[in-house]
Specification:
Blueprint lengths: L3 E10 L13 E11 L4 E5 L6 H8 L7 E6 L2 E2 L5 H8 L2 E4 L3 H4 L6 H11 L5 H14 L16 H13 L5 E5 L7 H18 L2 E5 L3 H7 L2 E6 L2 E7 L3 H4 L3 H8 L6 H9 L1
Helix pairs in contact: 4-5, 4-6, 5-6
């Protein structure tokens, strides 16, 4: 059985004109898309800005309803579930945002940020939740003393670690990472992807990893889906993407990756 499955999924924005209300242009952000994710699998999702990656993530998390199609979690269709019904599986499907700082309540300490989902799901008393927060901080490589800090007192890398800690606090089965490390330098990006791999091994996680960084997906992802105009136009293994790309759009994405060695860059320019 698949952990998560999308079948013929579409999301159209805009509206038809009625009376004196002008029509808005109807745009299909996701267009009859289907995908499957196995338990413990890392699926990369790549494509240019506006290709529909983030909209797809919201549909898969049940944060938006599709215009058509279905989303299934472990074979159960939750497409039409209400917010209260979604609580049955919300703890199993979590997200790490691109800008963790913007997703934090600035008035909350780290303990409150990580402990909030535990409190929402009625997990133990204050002491039990504090112990889980400390344990979760240790999992993401931070000491217990960080519990009492506020978001603005953390570095960018520490903020992303707190975002990951909040996502794993309820011990989910799937985490969707939406451009989580795009604001970090290359060294920190490597540290964060290594951390995700360690957490996968310890907690049995699966990931959907949305990114523009093709070098990351080639190292981190078991499988990569390439999105263009709301559709998946190609799928490859993570290690095979850079060498075995078939679709012209995928080849253009690969060609757009900056060449860091100036000598190689000159060679590419002459071609």
């Amino acid at each position: 059985m698949y952990l998560l499955e999308a079948v013929g999924l579409s999301k159209v924005y805009g509206r038809e004109g009625r009376g004196f209300t002008p029509a808005l242009q109807r745009v299909a952000a996701v267009n009859h898309l289907s995908l499957r994710l196995k338990p413990h699998e890392n699926l990369g999702l790549v494509g240019e800005s506006g290709s529909g990656k983030s909209t797809l993530a919201r549909l898969l998390l049940g944060l938006e309803r599709p215009s058509s199609g279905r989303v299934l979690y472990q074979g159960t269709d939750f497409t039409a579930w209400s917010l209260s019904e979604m609580r049955r599986i919300r703890d199993k499907l979590q997200v790490v945002f691109q800008n963790s700082l913007a997703s934090f309540n600035p008035m909350f300490t780290v303990e409150q940020i990580i402990g909030e989902p535990l409190r929402n799901y009625g997990m133990g008393n204050a002491r039990v939740r504090r112990e889980r927060v400390a344990e979760t901080l240790e999992l993401v490589g931070l000491e217990g003393r960080y519990m009492y800090r506020y978001p603005h007192e953390l570095s960018g890398g520490q903020q992303q670690r707190i975002g990951i800690a909040r996502a794993i606090a309820l011990r989910p089965e799937l985490i969707i990472c939406d451009e989580p490390f795009s604001s970090l330098d290359a060294s920190l990006r490597m540290q964060m992807t290594n951390l995700l791999q360690e957490l996968k091994a310890q907690l049995g996680l699966a990931y959907i990893f949305i990114t523009h960084d093709l070098s990351v997906v080639s190292r981190f992802c078991d499988r990569v889906a390439v999105m263009q105009q709301g559709q998946i136009v190609e799928e490859q293994s993570g290690v095979g993407l850079m060498k075995q790309a078939v679709h012209p759009y995928t080849k253009r994405l690969i060609a757009s990756v900056p060449v860091q060695d100036p000598r190689l860059r000159k060679t590419e320019d002459r071609k």
